[in-house]
Amino acid sequence: MLGPVLLAAARSDSIRRVVAAAPVTRPVVERFVAGERLDEAMAAVRNLAARGLEVTLDHLGEDITDPAEALRNRDAYLRLAEALKEHGLGVKAEMSVKLSAFGQALPGGHELALQNVTPVVEAAAEAGTTVTLDMEDHTTVDSTLAILAELRARFPQTGAVLQSYLFRTEDDCRALAGEGSRVRLVKGAYKEPATVAFQDKREVDRAYVRCLKILMAGRGYPMIGSHDPRMVAIAQELAHRNGRKPADYEFQMLYGIREAEQRRLVAEGNRMRVYIPYGTDWYGYFMRRLAERPANLAFFLRSLATRG
């Protein structure tokens, strides 16, 4: 079971240094990360938009230890919002933020994260787009949802992510299935204890379907964050059953994963949004992508073998 090992490695500074220093790592990372600079991310946006895909952009920078880092992350998102506005891409691209990047885990972190993320949400609105709050480990859920409620009072289009492997998520789906609410449903990519989360993949899948039924039957806007063909098919059936048109929900997949499926869904008339991460702090994101699917790990190992 390499998944838990890789998730633990995602938080290891010593392993981070080894992986980052390996000369073969960077070309492999480029499959999952659009680049380290804003201009590289914007080039990826334009490329995908030209093919009928929409995007959500994540400036990587979680697990910070200093309030100054939170300000730097805030400023990076402000520059991103300005770039989207300048190039008229707000209609095609939104932004995803991890509140840990805005100081959520620091002393006084709830207030600090709200203070730092608010101008980003304001700037997104000015650029004609919006922000979705990524969900992190279970200890952050209450704070993240409370910040969501604060932001939605002024910016009701602000979205949230819910993770089906947490026991609480069905209740959270019910709470967020109302008019105007935007929810990205994912299975979950953090190592969680058995006291709060399903550990068996089949249980996680069943929970995902239960949550999807709640969201599809609600009055909000479901965003299906999954690469699982079964979940895609189930989502389409549930959308049909609930009388939803293609504009009433969307699929979301990660940059560099199942690209042919992304194109297929667009060709069939579905809304398809690609999650594009960029920035220098790519290590934690990269390790979670390896942990999620054996195929990702196999791809990395094959690259190590062929480039070594």
TrEMBL record:
It comes from the Bacteria. Its cofactor is FAD. Its EC number is 1.5.5.2. Residues 42-299 form the Proline dehydrogenase domain. Pathway: Amino-acid degradation; L-proline degradation into L-glutamate; L-glutamate from L-proline: step 1/2. Pfam families: Pro_dh (PF01619). It catalyses: L-proline + a quinone = (S)-1-pyrroline-5-carboxylate + a quinol + H(+). Keywords: FAD, Flavoprotein, Nucleotide-binding, Oxidoreductase, Proline metabolism. Transmembrane segments: none annotated. The keyword RNA-binding does not apply. The keyword GTP-binding does not apply. This is proline dehydrogenase. The lineage of its organism: Bacteria, Bacillati, Actinomycetota, Actinomycetes, Kitasatosporales.
